[in-house]
Structure formats: C-alpha cells, structure tokens
Write a structure and sequence with these properties.
The structure holds two protein chains of two kinds.
Chain A lengths: L2 H13 L9 H32 L14 H4 L4 E2 L12 E2 L2 E13 L4 E12 L4 E5 L2 E6 L5 E6 L4 E8 L5 E16 L5 E7 L5 E4 L13 E2 L7 E8 L5 E5 L15 E2 L6 E4 L6 E4 L5 E2 L23 E5 L8 E4 L6 E5 L3 E7 L2 E7 L8 E7 L5 E3 L14 E7 L1
Antiparallel strand pairs in A: 1-2, 2-3, 3-4, 3-26, 4-5, 4-11, 6-7, 7-8, 8-9, 9-10, 10-13, 11-12, 13-14, 15-16, 16-17, 17-18, 19-20, 20-21, 22-23, 23-24, 24-25
Chain B lengths: L2 H25 L4 H17 L7 H14 L1 H5 L19 H16 L3 H12 L4 H8 L3 H18 L10 H4 L13
Classes of the chains: A mainly beta, B mainly alpha.
InterPro entries (chain A): Quino_amine_DH_bsu, WD40/YVTN_repeat-like_dom_sf
Organism (chain A): Streptomyces fructofermentans
Protein name (chain A): WD40 repeat domain-containing protein
C-alpha cells in the first residue's frame, strides 16, 4: 500500500463514522445572528449605558481589561446543555441566561417538634465552570453577569449580607443590617438589593399533628400557615451598602406564606411580594407605601419565575397543558390574552425574546420526573438542557435551579 | 432572512448537519469540539447570505475549507491532541496490521497544520483534482501541489511506522512553489 492509498483509506474510515448533530444547531446559529445584528444596531447606545453602569456597579459588572476571565464568559455558545447531568455538574446556559446555582433542601431537626428547612447551595465556580456545593449559606441570589452573589449566613434571620465573588469564592464585603433579614434579591441591573426582614426564621417547620403526605405516619414537617413574621424590607445600594428599611404594614399577614420574600419589579422601580389569595401580588415603593401594579405586570403570577420577556413585550404564563401533554402559555402582558402556547410544564427564565428555559417531562411520564429544557415560541422543538430530576416533590436530593443573566 | 428563508435554513441544517460535521471533524483532525465551532461559524456566515446562495451545501463546504486555512485560523491556538499509541509492527497484507496503520495515520493527520490537513482532505477524501482544490482555497495549483508534497513528508516524520509505506505520486514530484496561502473567506 502506498501513502496515497493509506491517507485516502484513513480519511474515508474516519469520515464514515457517524456524528450526532449538536442539538438545535440552526436555532443557535440564527440566535447568534440575531444577537450580532442587534448589537450592531444598538452598539453606540449600549456602549454609553455600559460605561455608566460600570462606573456605579463595580463589584457586579466585569471590570474588563486585566480581569481574569469568567468561566461563563469563556464559553459563549448559545446553548450549553448537559442532558446527562442531574443534578448538574457543569455550566448550563441558553441564550442570555445561565444556571447560576441550584439548591437541594434538607430538613434539619432542632427539637422533637421543630425543624428548619435548609438549602445546600451548589454555586457556579467561575474559575472552573463547575457547580460546587457549599453549606455556608442559607439564601443566595446571583447578580446579572454572574460575578457576584448576595449571600446570607446559615442562621436566620441574619444581621449582615455578604457579597460573594464567584471567581475567588470569597466574600468581598459585608453589608451590616439592624433588622434580621432572611431573603435577598438583586435588582434587574444588579445595582440594588432588596432584603426581606423577618422576626423569625421563615424556614422554620413544625411537626404536623396529622399525616400530611398520606404515608401512614405522622412525621411531616409543615410551615406555620397564617403566622408570617415578615416585617418589611431594605433596599440597599450594592456598592456602598447605603439604603433604608421600610415597614410593610400588616393586613396581609394571613395571606402570606411563612417565607414570602420581596423582589424588584421588571423596571427595578418598585418591589412586590406574592399573596396566597387574590390579587396574588402587591407592589410597594421603596418607602413601603402600596403602589399601583405596573401595567405590564398585572397578569404575572409570582410563582411563575420567568415573568416578562427581556424586551417587555411578552409575559410568561401558567401551565396550559392537558392530561396528555405539557404546555405553558405566553400572554400579552397588557391584556392577559394568550398569544402563544409553548411546550413546557413551568416557565423558569427567558433565554431571549422568543425562547425560555422551562421544566418539562417526557410525554406520559410522572409529573415530577422533569428536566430543564429550552423551548421556542412558535416551535414544538424542545432542547434538553439537564438530566431528569428524581423523586417526588419534596423528596430528598431534588434540586431547584437559580438563573441569572450571563 | 424572512420566515420562509429561516424555515429553509433550518431544514438544510437538519438534513445536512451530519454530513457537514463529518467533514468538519476530518478538517479538525478528529477534534469534535473544534469541528462544531468550525461548522457553526460556517453556518453563521452562510445564514448571512442565505437568500443569495444558489447551492447552499457547496457554499458551506467552501467556507469550511477556507476558514480552516485562513491566516486567522492558523494564528489561533493550536490544540494538542492525544494520539493513540503507535503499534509495534506495521504494513503487510494482514488486515489487523492495516487497521493499526490507519490508527497511526489518523494520529499523524491530527498533528498536521490545519492548512496541510485541509489540502489532504480535499485531495484524498473529496477526491478533487488539484485545479479544483486551488479554486476552492483561492490559491495556485503549484501551492496545492507543494502543500500536498510537504504534508505527506510531514506525516512520515510524525509517524516513523509509515517508513515502509511506498511513496505517493505527489511525493515523487516535488514542487518549487512554496508561496504562502492567503485566502479571505
């Protein structure tokens, strides 16, 4: 055999090996083009906004230049999926959103009739791009850009809020607070934090005197319904720690879950919290005075995490499937009218203006056997992003995702 | 691209990705991740001109090849690949020995430069005459000939096990044309 033939045979043999196509390559390519086009059109305006944002939000936004690169910035693929991983081990992302962390709940018994529901977080290590378990924190929220997380220590309510650098793994600084906080959430631009204050640990559980899960044993831990100890919230500047506390007057106490944290409205100008009864959400200004619900948020549900699309033109709605197939609805935010139906059991985060990350099941499977998927408005295509979760709701080891803009 | 164009593009990608990816894997010396990058970039470029392209597959393949030999690609970090251990013996008509030789050859191909490998893929896998390879890569026939010659010589250096293999035709007729390739995909 001569070299010609050997090279030819080798290439033909190698070229005959089947190659599984990457999931939704066309969608990925079109999304990249769309993003590049948008960037070209709005390049100048975006540059101006970024310059201002970088000046005020130093720990949150990438300082650029000689900064070490973040793992989430090194891999800018449109879809980073690990359908074989549950819980995830390596960075998962789609479009502009990424799985910044997830937590697994555990019940820690304190006395015979009291226990605390504790979250063991797995945070993205920005040096390695892997999720790393930590038992240091009770509550975590990750800022847009995924450089900084706001963290609360294990004992709640906490007297300080940490700003954790996800690259170094160290708390860069602490914001002390006079009133105990047990919830934290960043504003959409990452400049502010809303910290919910409670008199007692909202994750406290009491032994139920009835068999809640029907397993024949009275061994269930339940939150204390109708007994909210929530008192109000702080709105704090992330850089300086400056801010003020606002009391949220009672009246709604019996319509709150034991943990009912505040979060920012879509434009960051108000805060809101869910209610267990109609109207299901209530908005407040930063002084704690009740405010009108923003027009585009009237049809949102506090328990549908995805909320408004990045351009504000669509609202993520509730489950709209039937007994055979899962689906969720996409609404006109102003009228509440259903505009689209997409696959997916529960909408978690917008990847861009026409794609969302959702929980979904395999057709016909148990409703709790679900995985993260990417769904697209106007398409039946479902791109798996993670492996399936195991166990029923509340079972040990089930993980809950936390998304952030990448 | 309008909605109809997008639909056609999606259909094309769905139907042709496997075949295109196989070529991209060859061009990338077996590195699947690099192959996906290469194909995705080629498709992004094709999507930009989608409605003006007459033969999408030929167009995407041309971008694949040209991207691979462009100067930008050559400056890009070179990936170190793990190469299978060379076998003890080689050659002969023994089928298992021939299979071992192909493994050695695959490892050696992976260690060529992207430009060298691309020329060999076009000449021996796509089976194109030198003139067509030159047209696709935007270089002279002499450059194709000299690159082929040097690539085969390099394979012998990278894999001494191939010493017993008879020289290829291209090795017998060295070319003096060593002009650098400069193409703009």
């Amino acid at each position: 055999m001569n070299m010609d033939q050997l090279v030819r045979d080798t290439l033909i043999e190698q070229g005959a090996q089947p190659q599984t196509p990457p999931p939704d390559l066309a969608g990925r390519v079109l999304a990249v083009r769309r993003r590049r086009r948008t960037r070209r059109i709005s390049g100048v305006a975006v540059a101006a906004v970024l310059a201002v944002a970088a000046a005020v939000a130093v720990p949150v936004l990438d300082r650029g230049g000689d900064e070490p690169r973040l793992a989430s910035g090194m891999n800018r693929s449109d879809i980073i999926a690990h359908p074989d991983q549950s819980p995830p081990r390596d960075l998962i992302a789609a479009g502009d959103t990424a799985l910044a962390a997830y937590y697994v709940m555990d019940m820690v018994r304190k006395t015979d009739d009291r226990a605390v529901a504790v979250r063991d977080y797995h945070l993205l290590d920005q040096r390695t791009g892997k999720y790393v378990r930590t038992t240091d924190w009770s509550v975590v929220d990750v800022a847009p850009g995924m450089r900084t997380a706001a963290v609360l220590e294990r004992e709640l309510p906490a007297r300080r809020i940490g700003l954790l650098d996800l690259l170094s793994g160290k708390v860069e600084h602490w914001i002390p607070v006079d009133r105990g906080v047990a919830g934290v959430a960043f504003s959409p631009d990452g400049d502010k934090l809303v910290a919910t204050t409670y008199d007692e640990n909202p994750d406290l559980r009491l032994r139920a005197d009835y068999d809640n899960d029907g397993d024949g044993r009275k061994n269930d831990w339940m939150p204390q319904f109708g007994g909210s100890s929530r008192t109000g919230f702080y709105v704090l500047d992330v850089d300086t720690g400056d801010g003020s506390w606002a009391r949220v007057a009672g009246g709604d106490q019996e319509h709150l879950n034991a943990r009912q944290d505040f979060a920012f409205s879509g434009d960051g100008g108000l805060v809101y919290s869910g209610l267990t009864t109609a109207p299901h959400q209530r908005y407040y200004d930063f002084e704690g005075k009740e405010a009108d619900t923003p027009a585009k948020e009237r049809h949102l549900h506090w328990f549908v995490d995805a909320r408004l699309s990045p351009d504000g033109s669509l609202a993520a709605g509730e489950f709209a499937g039937g007994s055979r197939a899962t689906a969720s609805e996409i609404l006109d935010p102003l009228t509440g009218k259903r505009l689209h139906k997409v696959p997916g059991q529960q909408l978690l985060a917008w990847a861009d203006d026409d794609r969302l990350v959702a929980w979904d099941i395999e057709p016909g499977a148990n409703e709790f056997h679900n995985r993260l998927v990417l769904v697209t408005i106007g398409s039946d295509k479902v791109v798996p992003l993670s492996g399936f979760r195991k166990g029923n709701d509340g079972a040990g080891g089930r993980w809950t995702p936390l998304f952030a803009r990448r | 691209m309008d909605a109809q164009g997008q639909e056609q593009f999606r259909e094309f990608v769905e139907n042709r990705t496997s075949a295109l990816l196989r070529t991209a894997v060859l061009l990338s010396g077996g590195d699947r991740h690099a192959a996906e990058d290469l194909l995705q970039n080629a498709l992004i470029k094709a999507a930009g001109k989608w409605q003006r392209i007459d033969e999408p597959e030929a167009y995407v393949r041309q971008i694949l090849y040209r991207q691979q030999v462009s100067r930008w690609r050559l400056k890009w970090r070179r990936r170190e690949l793990t190469v299978a251990d060379p076998p003890e013996g080689s050659g002969g008509s023994d089928p298992s020995a021939a299979a071992e030789l192909r493994i050695v050859m695959r490892g050696a191909l992976a260690r060529l430069t992207a430009r060298q490998r691309t020329v060999l893929v076009l000449r021996y896998f796509e089976d194109l005459p030198e003139a067509d390879v030159a047209r696709i890569l935007g270089c002279s026939v002499g450059t194709v000939r000299s690159t082929t010659h040097r690539s085969l010589a390099r394979l012998r250096v990278l894999a001494p096990e191939l010493a017993a293999t008879a020289p290829a035709d291209a090795e017998r007729t060295p070319s003096r044309d060593f002009a650098p390739v400069e193409v703009r995909p």
